[in-house]
Amino acid sequence: MIDLHKPGLVLFDMDSTLITIECIDEIAELAGYRHQVEQITAAAMRGELDFAASLRQRMQLLKGVAQADFQQLFEPIPWSQGAVELLTWFRQLGWKTAVVSGGFTWFAEQLQQQAPLDVVIANRLIWDGDRLTGDVAEPIIDAQAKAAAVTQLAQQFGIAMEQTIAVGDGSNDSLMLQQAALGIAYCAKPALQAVADVVINEPNLSAIKAHLTQ
């Protein structure tokens, strides 16, 4: 049982969880490959494709996109409803907050500048000057890496594992949700709902606070 009066750690997926978009799909729009990339993303989210392999496959289609074009995707940041309020509430409780994402640090670090996030863990893009090479740095943040982050960050912050919460929406979050004491599926794919402790289908992250305080 989560005790909100004790120190804790909450980990969030980023794309389609803390924010409303899938960043890689939006980058693909800039490259003219949205349809192809969306299809691969959807299959990976359903658990039909290996995440790391699907990410490498998608990145190859994005070669040549300019870093300057990214900014339009985050002006303003497409926060999910209730996201900043929920992060602020956890901070007020004295909890540690983290983004653990199969997306990209370029975006996650911007979230950290605007909301109370102690840690961001995500994939690092590789650039040739200011343009994408079509590659992503190793190691890739996949389902196993997300699950490992729960234990690593709990140890780093001196937080008991029974005081950990993980929130996500796709199959790549399944191991993370199972590793945490409380796994919350937020507007999630069926594969994730099946392994979650709590399922929230209301598109408002404030529903998590309501659930925890009821």
Automatic annotation (TrEMBL):
Pfam families: HAD
Cofactor(s) in the UniProt record: Mg(2+)
Catalytic activity: O-phospho-D-serine + H2O = D-serine + phosphate; O-phospho-L-serine + H2O = L-serine + phosphate
Alphabetic keyword roster: Amino-acid biosynthesis, Hydrolase, Magnesium, Metal-binding, Serine biosynthesis
Pathway noted in the entry: Amino-acid biosynthesis; L-serine biosynthesis; L-serine from 3-phospho-D-glycerate: step 3/3
Molecular-function GO terms, alphabetical: hydrolase activity
InterPro entries (alphabetical): HAD-like_SerB, HAD-like_sf, HAD_sf, PSP
The protein's Enzyme Commission number: 3.1.3.3
Top-level taxon of origin: Bacteria
Metal-binding as UniProt keyword: yes
Family annotation (SUPFAM superfamilies): HAD-like
Family of the protein in this entry: Belongs to the HAD-like hydrolase superfamily. SerB family.
Entry protein name: Phosphoserine phosphatase
Organism, scientific name: Pseudidiomarina fusca
Organismal lineage: Bacteria, Pseudomonadati, Pseudomonadota, Gammaproteobacteria, Alteromonadales
Gene responsible for this protein: serB
